[in-house]
């Protein structure tokens, strides 16, 4: 039981870092700045639900699809680690400027994807499923759905209390953690690939 709870907690934290709901607050709030609070919260809810549905889909069907093409776990770790590293570096240096993005339905594009359910988080749920199992991964998605909506729905309060600069600093810290996590994935994937080749 203790081990199962630890798996859920570890899966939740790892996915939380990749989703970066806190770091997305300035971006999401900027994209919905012309909306009333009730309308904004509906958009936030829709974006979180759509992103979560995408993550559940890839949790259930991601590996079987790619396994058909003989893609190994080591391949995923290396490729996913590179993707996460790029996302982390972009976050650290502030390269992602979502204010420039526009869509007919902001809740889906760019908010649900790629800002929440992007390549990094899609890889992450498949990695979590392979590492911790299906139930902890699905629970981590559920908990992150709830946490993400609570954070975004209270974004105006958080921005008012902490200030935009503080939120951006927290986002940079999460991006650094993500980059470090990505390096560990790449190292682990290379080690597995070498072992599989008998090196």
From TrEMBL:
It is a multi-pass membrane protein. It comes from the Archaea. InterPro entries: Multi_antbiot-R_MarC. It is found in: Cell membrane. It holds the Pfam family MarC. Its main location: membrane. Keywords: Cell membrane, Membrane, Transmembrane, Transmembrane helix. One of its GO terms (cellular component) is plasma membrane. The chain crosses the membrane at residues 12-31, 43-66, 78-94, 106-128, 134-154, 166-186. Belongs to the UPF0056 (MarC) family. This is UPF0056 membrane protein.
